[in-house]
Amino acid sequence: MSYNTFGRHFRITTFGESHGPALGVVIDGIPPNLAVDPGNIRKWMDRRRPGGSTVSSSRRERDGIQVLSGMLDGRTTGAPICLLLFNEDARPQDYDHLKRVFRPGHADFTWQGKYGLRDWRGGGRSSGRETAARVAAGAVAGQLLAGQGVGILGHVVEIAGIRARNFDPRVIGTNPLCCADASAVGRMEEAIETARAAGDSVGGVVELRASGVPLGWGDPVFGKLDAMLAGALMGIGAVKAVEIGDGFRAARARGSQNNDAILPGGFASNHCGGILGGISNGETIVVRLAVKPTPSIAREQQTVDLAGLPVTVSVRGRHDPCIAPRLVPVAEAMCALVLADAWLGQLMVAVPSEGFSTGGMSRVDPCEFPSGNGSHRRSGPFLRQAHPRNHLK
Ligand SMILES: Cc1cc2nc3c(=O)[nH]c(=O)nc-3n(C[C@H](O)[C@H](O)[C@H](O)COP(=O)(O)O)c2cc1C
Description:
By secondary structure, the chain is α+β, with helices and mostly antiparallel strands. It is 23% helix and 20% strand. The chain has a 5-stranded antiparallel β-sheet with strand order 1-2-3-7-4, with helices on one face. The chain has helices at 38-48, 108-115, 131-146, 169-172, 182-197, 225-234, 255-258, 324-346, and strands spanning 5-6, 11-16, 22-28, 66-69, 71-72, 75-76, 81-86, 151-159, 162-163, 204-211, 239-244, 262-263, 266-267, 275-276, 279-280, 285-291, 301-304, 310-313. The longest helix has 23 residues, at 324-346. Flavin mononucleotide is lined by residues 57, 106-107, 123, 126-128, 131, 236-238, 292, 294-296, 319-320, 323, 326-327, 330.
């Protein structure tokens, strides 16, 4: 099976199954002598961990990370970093009754069709559990980006059609839904509970804001930053659409409304979501992800078994009735991996911008990283270019 490796410069390979003994990630391509705090990886893992609230799965995992290689005295050595975490609350026996049955909305049917077998123990590699390894790697990428003044803030903007109207980043870490609008949280929780009581589930929308990304990250043609982000985020289970900037709304606007006017002091608006021609323009990168309702539901559904015979299935057990909140740190991690990769890629572009001044155009608006505590620092406008000399601090 191919494609367990992601990234060009900052490369990760994840391994392990949902109900196997362990999961992990090998990170390669990371420069030496960069500070990485394992305590910070812990914080990221805690935010992704299930069992933390009534709206998430009751699977209890400590997600204690073991750093097996690539680090010395809190710094990277340049060798591959291997991070390992054990599955302590795996219960493969819970899935015995699903050995011969395809769960609707899951990868069961397609894996069986493609490989002639599948890991029936909670989906194996296609389980949301695999994302724990991505989050561990994303935590490392995030720390490197923080050293470059880049912060990534994820939050839930919609659940079951109920939209967040306000944005107060301090609120995100105070509720289990990772929502920045305190007035929407209660209604969202109610909608989740109502669906759960009916043996059903709901979907939602997650927004990412990456601030402090300087002008110039991303490559034209096949390495466009928006394409990389879309691919990385669509690669998360249950994500069905990705929107950059105004996204689908741009299709309904006029050019005069959608273009971001360029003024001597910066862009007048940010409809493009911080990316033009696949290259960051110095504005905050804004991305939204549509997350489908949890496919495992208690309500009876029609399906078939291995022999193709019709059966009804009710998927009980430890499932998130809404995946969107748990997806926030995973989305932040994938975004961090793409941006760390783009940063390393830019280090190879050693062309000084002669005759071109960014003037006041590259507004940088760093926010606290990771977004767990929700605080958002505005540091005011300042100039920064993508030139490599400005990168390694
Ligand atoms: C962090 C995370 C947690 C998830 N938790 C669950 C869950 O508890 N129950 C479930 O049925 N699906 C869960 N999923 C979604 C499934 O893994 C996913 O929908 C399924 O593998 C099919 O893939 P697709 O939706 O990308 O087509 C989760 C996904 C992620 C990223």
